[in-house]
Structures are given as C-alpha cells and as structure tokens.
Amino acid sequence: MLPDDFHAGIKVPPWFILLFFMPFSIPGRDLKDSSAQIQDIWGNSEGDVDLRNVVFVIQSQRNSFHERRAKQQKAKLLQQAEDLKASLPTVLLLHNLTGNDGDWSILPVLPLLASVYGETSSWFIFLEEETNVRMERLLRALSRFDAAKEWFLGKPLRDEEATITHHYAFADDPSAFSYPDFSAAWALSTPLILRLASKVKDEPLKSDFTIDLKHEIALYIWEDGQGPSLTAVPEFCTGLEGSTQARDCATTLPEHIPQCGDPVRKEEVFVAVKTCQKFHKERISMVKKTWEKDAALLEYYSDYADPDIPTIDLGVPNTERGHCGKTFAILQRFLSDAVPKADWLLIVDDDTLISLPRLRTLLQCYDPSEPLCLGERYGYGLGRGGYSYITGGGGMVFSRPAVSQLLASSCRCYSDEAPDDMVLGMCLSSLRIPVTHSPLFHQARPVDYARDLLAHQASISFHKHWNIDPVAVFYEWLVDPAVPLGHEGAREEL
To answer: Is 303:293 a contact under the CB 8 Å cutoff?
Structure first.
C-alpha cells in the first residue's frame, strides 16, 4: 500500500502527505546529459584492479531459499577469483551484516562498511543473489575508473512518465534522472562510500518510507546535484546468460523467474480477493475476464453477499482506506474448516492483475513449512529501527505457518480501517518472521515502471486500473510466452 493509503493511525506529518501527491521537479544541472553520458574515459586505462581491494555485497534475504542462493553466489565469486589466480575479494551477505531488519535498504549499513573496509578497499559492488558475474570483464570495466574519485556506476533506468512510486519526482522530464538496475549490479568507489557513511550518521533521511530503493538510493547519492549522478557502464547488463545480447557483458541473468522444479499445484494456493459492493460490477468482471480461470481455490470477500459472483460477507464493514479488519478475517477463515486446506494464501485487491501460473512457479522455490510472507517489500522508518512490510496491492502471499503464528500472537488491528499491510509488517517484525521481497510483484501499473526493468522480468502482478485497459495489460504482461520462461527469446531486452 502506498503512503496515501496508510497514514491512518500512523504519525505522518500532514505536510508529508501533501508533498507526496504534489508533482515537482528538482532544479539543477542537466541531469539527462550528466547521468546518461558515457564519459571520455572509455578509451583510457586507470590501472588494474586488485580483487583484494574489492568488496562484493550480495543483497541477500533471511529465508532458506534466498540464503542458499546467496551462499552459492558467494562460492561462485570466490571460485572465479581462484581460477584467475588472483587474491580473494571480500564477499558479504547483506542479511548477515548486523541482523537489523532494515539493512536491505543499504543506507543503514554504509557506516559499518566504511569503518571496517574503507581503508583497505577501493570498490564496493552490490549485486542480487541471482546476478551472474564474469569477474575478469568486471575488473576490466572497473579499471577504466580512478578509484580515488567518487564514482556511482551501473546500468541506468529511466522513467517515461512521472509516477507515484517515485513521489512524482522530475515531473517536467522524468527521463532526466537515471537510477541503477540492481539486477545488473552497481558499484560505489570508496571515497563515495566514506562520504555517504558520514552523511547517513549526521543527516536523517528525508522520508520515512522506502518504496523503490534503487530510485531512492540514486536520489540520496545525487543530493540535488551536489553528488555524482549514475554513470552508465555498458558491461553492467541484464541479458540472459548465453544470449547474444550478453556476449560482452560483465553481469548477466540466468533466467527471468527462478526455476526450482515443477510449479506447485493449483490446489496448494488459496486465493482471497478483497472487494466491496460498489466495485462488484466494475472490477470483479475484470478478474473473471483475466486470471480467475487459473485459480482452483478462490473466494471473493465483500461487505455484501452477492450470489451471482458469488461474494462472501465476512461481517466487516467496508472502509475507504485501510482494510485491516477484513484482512484479519480472511486470515482466520483460511485456518478454519470453512475452506479447503492449502499450503499458501494469496490476498489480492479486486483491481490486482496477477499471473497465477508464474506465482506457482515461484512458490516452488519456497518451503511451505517455513513461516513466510512474500511480495513487494516496502519499509517504514528503517533508518531508526522501523519495519518492513509487503505492500498489499501487488499481492501478499502467506505460508500456513506464517498465518498460524500471526493469529496465535497478540497482534491485532487497532481499527478495521487501519492499513492492513503495515499492521501485518509490524506484527511480522515482532514475531521475527522475515518479510521476503520479490521484484516480480508490482504495486502499480506497467506504465509506472521503466520498460528496461520489466523487459528482463516475468512479472507476477500489477495493480490499479487507472487509465489502462486491464484486459490488454494482463495479456501483454502477465500471460506466459510460447517458449519456456528463463530461455533466450522469452522476452528480448529492450
């Protein structure tokens, strides 16, 4: 849920809520030229990079599947260094650095990285668990830069239009500002790390909300034109490993969606759709035209029992903003004998578009006996001990043990209209149940994301019907291509 939906019950200054909805542009130098430009250094050589002066930070998560992938990534990086007969680099797993739930937002760990590795390292490379690294090509790319200067390197993404997920930043020219595609890896030189670490300690973050980390990191580094813009490095890529597009790349991707075996069975996923009477005709009809056919177990929950759909009245009145009362009633029903027993619970809004076949493919990677909450992760107050949560519009997936632990705890809604996703985030944090992020879930519409980002994803969900044809969006973005996902040609990179 975006900040416009969750200020109820949360102490958010009114001016922040107002600012969040006001389009604005940030003055300063010509961002488009400075961030998109590949500078004259491409033909120069600043010197070889010693791997022992490189720190790799794998953006790992606290879940058995993600921990396993992160350890495999670490092993591959160290093996490549040995194969090159080079000194071993430092390889860190982000979720292990401090145990702080907010470490995934990167900024809180910068002081630690600076104090421990600032004097002995020249580069910090941040990468996803699944990002393939070709070490020799990466070092060759880094060698073109003077590590004694401030550098922010990566594959740039740009918005085509102002979007709520980026607080409508750069409304006059959204494409003027670039931010890194985390899947391609991104790099910071040590002088920049040291300065940012000092800034993190001395200056509070301007926003309590972490919504799109890669965009917010780039804004924080840029500092209204006082800091460096992202410099594009052609070798930082998101093409599929083995494809023609990835031939000269230092980083690649193995697949568009994790492949862990056959998808879980339809009967293992129970789908709960939140709706209300005024949207029965408008929104439920879209669900029935698109993805309902892919669900074996599905119920619509409303404030009115309509036998034609059918909908179920849970006895919770409809609320205009948060839907905490309705969501907790759904959790209780999932554990009751009123519905068939399933391993997984998916809760979506009536204007969520989702690919259930892709979701079932992804769920095969997770152990249903573990407590798990999965979706698009946001954060609240992470710089000062806040909590993470799964934003509701993109879909929230719960394992049965997670639901059992939630309901067995003292966590409850402080009102029916409280923001359900944020309340659940606070509960999960208190229970030490990890909030697990997948970039394949989306809180907004496809037009609200950079096309280069969506090009290398097999997206699972999108949200909202504003100014789009929901049926057309579903079939363009959420229906599987003819070739298997993860193979060359599944979706060519733009």
So the answer is: no
